[in-house]
Amino acid sequence: MAENRQKIASLEQELISLRDAIDALNALHRSSADDQSNRGWIHESEKGFPPMSLRTPSPDATRLYRTAFEAYFFHGDYPTAISRFQEFLTTFPPNDLTDNALYWMGESYYAQGDFQSAISSFHKLVDTNPYSNHVPEALLKIALSYSELRNPQKAREFLVRIMDSYPFSQAAKSAKTKLDQLE
After folding, report:
1. What distance in Å separates the CA atoms of residue 107 and residue 110, rounded to the nearest whole number?
2. What fold characterizes domain 2-41+56-182?
């Protein structure tokens, strides 16, 4: 049973990682299309992407984000990933990759066992990007971090919040399982 839960958790993380990689590739594509459009190579109607509420990241921002994400995802080099994500967040204005950077920075802190910093990063994501597709998972990681810090009351608070706010999400299913374990 525990082995199945671990496999499910691993698959959930892999799915999040793949979604993030797709987001990063889409942002790269948008940057490329915008750059080509500015040079007259692609007509506006040929871009194929709806207008975004945030700004498309610059090529430099995209490169730095990609470096940070690769350090996290492919190399497990969490200190480098954190440093690069922090540089990305402080150097560039909010853009389509900001929520991803905050999420993966939080995951990097979590992987290192720095649960307080993970909570801070995930909170910033939730507070500044409330419509991000990462919010349910960020809330779950906040709850899990509080659990690791031996604060079951705060963990329960966030687990219930996930189940109330995102009842059909995978995070809600995980929250229910964790809540059952806490009780």
Report:
1. 5
2. 1.25.40
Alpha-carbon gap, residue 143 to 17, rounded angstroms: 20
Distances (CA, A) of 94 to 88, 89, 99, 171: 10, 8, 9, 26
In whole angstroms, give the CA distance from residue 26 to residue 67. Answer: 16
Predicted pLDDT at 12: 62
Rounded Cα gap, residues 108 and 56, in angstroms: 24
Q: Give the three-class secondary structure for 55.
A: strand
Q: Where are the domains of the chain?
A: 2-41+56-182
pLDDT along the chain (183 residues), means of 10: 66 64 60 42 36 74 96 96 98 94 98 98 96 96 98 97 95 95 85
Is the CB of residue 143 less than 8 Å from the CB of residue 121?
no
Residue 106: name the closest of 50, 129, 61, 39 by CA: 129
The answer to whether 57 touches 65, Cβ cutoff 8 Å, is yes
